[in-house]
Specification:
Blueprint (H helix, E strand, L loop, with lengths): L1 H20 L4 H22 L3 H24 L4 H22 L2 H9 L1 H20 L2 H12 L3
Helix pairs in contact: 1-3, 2-3, 2-6, 3-4, 6-7
Length: 149
C-alpha cells in the first residue's frame, strides 16, 4: 500500500512538473534525457543490472532527472533550497530502487549514492560548459565523471 501511494505521488509530481515547465524547449528535454541516460548507464554497468532492472532504473532516473532539473531551474539563485528539495527527490528514488534492485545491488547503490550524485553534478557541469562554449573545461570535467568506482 505504501509503495502504491509513493508511486501515485511520484506520477502526480511528474505531471505537475511537466505542467509547471509548460512548453520548455526540446533542448531542456534533451538535457534531461542525457542526464538520466548518463546516470542510468553508470548504474547499469557498476551494479550489473539485468534487462528488467535496466529498464526500470532508466524510467526512475528519467523521472528524477525531470524533477531535479525543474527544481534547479525554478530555484536557480537559491542553492540551499535546491539541495533541500533535491534531497527529497533522491529519497523517493531510493524507495523505488529498493523495489527494483536485489539486496546486494541496493546495498552497493546505497553505499555509493554520493558518488552517483557527484557524477551527475559533474556531468551537468560538463554539459553547461559545452553549452557556454567552454571546450577546455568540459573535457576535464567529462573525464572526471567517467572514472567513478
Amino acid at each position: 500500500m505504501k509503495k502504491l501511494l509513493v508511486m501515485i505521488c511520484m506520477m502526480f509530481g511528474c505531471v505537475f512538473v511537466a505542467k509547471a515547465t509548460g512548453g520548455k524547449t526540446s533542448k531542456t528535454k534533451a538535457v534531461v534525457t542525457a542526464r538520466a541516460q548518463h546516470l542510468s548507464d553508470q548504474m547499469i554497468k557498476e551494479l550489473r543490472l539485468n534487462n528488467y532492472q535496466s529498464k526500470k532504473v532508466r524510467e526512475i532516473n528519467l523521472q528524477v532527472a525531470e524533477q531535479v532539473t525543474a527544481i534547479e531551474q525554478q530555484f536557480a539563485g537559491n542553492q540551499q533550497k535546491v539541495e533541500e528539495l533535491c534531497k527529497n527527490v533522491y529519497a523517493e528514488r531510493d524507495l523505488f530502487l529498493e523495489n527494483v534492485l536485489s539486496t546486494v545491488q541496493y546495498n552497493d547503490y546505497f553505499g555509493d549514492r554520493n558518488v552517483y550524485r557527484s557524477a551527475d553534478q559533474k556531468f551537468m557541469g560538463s554539459l553547461n560548459d559545452q553549452n557556454a562554449g567552454g571546450i577546455a573545461s568540459s573535457g576535464n570535467t567529462g573525464a572526471a565523471s567517467v572514472s567513478v568506482n
